[in-house]
Amino acid sequence: MPDLAYVNGEIMPIEKAVVPIEDRGYQFGDGVYEFVASYEGRLFMLEEHLDRLERSMRELAFDPISRSEIKAAICDLLKRSGYPRAGIYIQISRGVAPRNHAITPDMAAQIIMTIRPVKEIQEDIRKNGATAITVQDTRWVRCDIKTVQLLANSLAKQKALDSGCDDAIFVSDQGIVREGTSSNLFIISGGKLITHPLTDYILPGITRTAVLNICKAADLEVEESFFGTETLYGADEVFLTGTVTEVLPVVRIDGRSIGDGKVGPITRRIYDLLRKQALAGGSA
Ligand code: PDD
User: Fold this and answer.
1) Cα 270-274-278 angle, rounded to 5 deg
2) Catalytic entry in 16, 71, 79, 146
3) Is the pTM of this model over 0.85?
4) Which domains are delineated in the chain?
């Protein structure tokens, strides 16, 4: 079965799918997206992803589109692909119009999706932990909206790879640690988990929510508060969360070892609990 694309209601092989050159997503980054993954043929936390997609569209004043239509298309794509471990990318752009900064009324939203097998995190990184650099957060100030404007994220990721690390962590001008290039970030200090609060400066990650719920159920103490790079470097454990990232330990940041430089027990435990929940087809 080839990797498939969905374009405004039509399903086709990915290489056959094209978008009009005057799509506002293409010219202005005027589009929102989601990325949802399946485990053994079941989509993990699909309703939460659809909630966030609707929120992103509302925040940008897109005309509403039918949730049930999008959901049906996602499920149909998954079924047709036959992939047990699929990654589905869903993008909705405001529409197609002659290039103009002002928004033409009554544009038809463009809905595209792709489905491929999930590109898993490399086994050795998953097992031994990832390395990261910190970078200045140069993104716009509505990082809570999942828009397709990912240039800062993409450049930061590449900078990390070019410097021999696996990922980059955004830090604000004031030195506040935000999140990864495609993940949220948690630290563990003295047995307590700390993560950035939900503000305009980070994405409200679905995996972040799943981890918060797991911690609650496991009686692990969590605090949502701001912290700086010194606290990050001094943490006992650090991990990233995301749909593909799942729970990924980070053992070295800016050349400094985190804790003893090995994957910590709490991170390992939360990863196991998240996997268990995902494989059971559970929701948060
Ligand atoms: N990215 N923060 C950012 C900036 C992200 O791009 C993502 C996800 C997350 C984690 O969100 P979630 O747990 O809902 O996947 C946090 C997706 C996977 C992507 O860009 O493909």
Assistant:
1) 170
2) 146
3) yes
4) 4-117 (3.30.470.10), 123-279 (3.20.10.10)
